[in-house]
Amino acid sequence: MRPTVLETGYGIGPKLLFGLIRLMSGRSLPDAARITFYRPDFYGARMKQLTHQAMRGHSGWSVGDRELMAAYVSKLNECPFCVGAHSATAARAYEDEQRVAAVLADLDSAPIEDGLRATLGMLGKLTRERALSADDVRAVLSAGVSRQEIEDALAVGFVFNTTDRLANAFAFEVLSQDGFDAGAKYLLKRGYR
To answer: Does any domain span residue 31?
Structure first.
């Protein structure tokens, strides 16, 4: 059930901003952005900072790789909003829709590097089972992934295991492909601030 807070739980400042964005872009602000304005001291400001660092901070993973990780975790969490948003962003970052579609269809046969495959497999296990063993991490290390890259991937996994649950619980509106593409352009230009 969609809570009314996504429609009415804001002060005058955010409401004016939402109206201005709609006027300038011709689109409503997506629910993922709207929710960061509800109780920003508790959730919004902190989560934007954490998400931006995980997705755009210094990392051995490219922006496309991290967006693909977000889409993959979101697929496993059955979160249609986040799958759409981060698939579109990964495809735009890679300039390769087929690569993203292949990973989401079948990780084992997708045409990606072994290290990325092993890392996505680790994130998948963590998402499904909510636990990892030392052997799981060793397998990723043996695929050539550095300890820092594992930490960076786990940060992406944490952010999207949290965001996916909120999106599903709050019944975030699933955008049209045009809406997801517009969001992808924004995310690649501005990040998650």
So the answer is: no
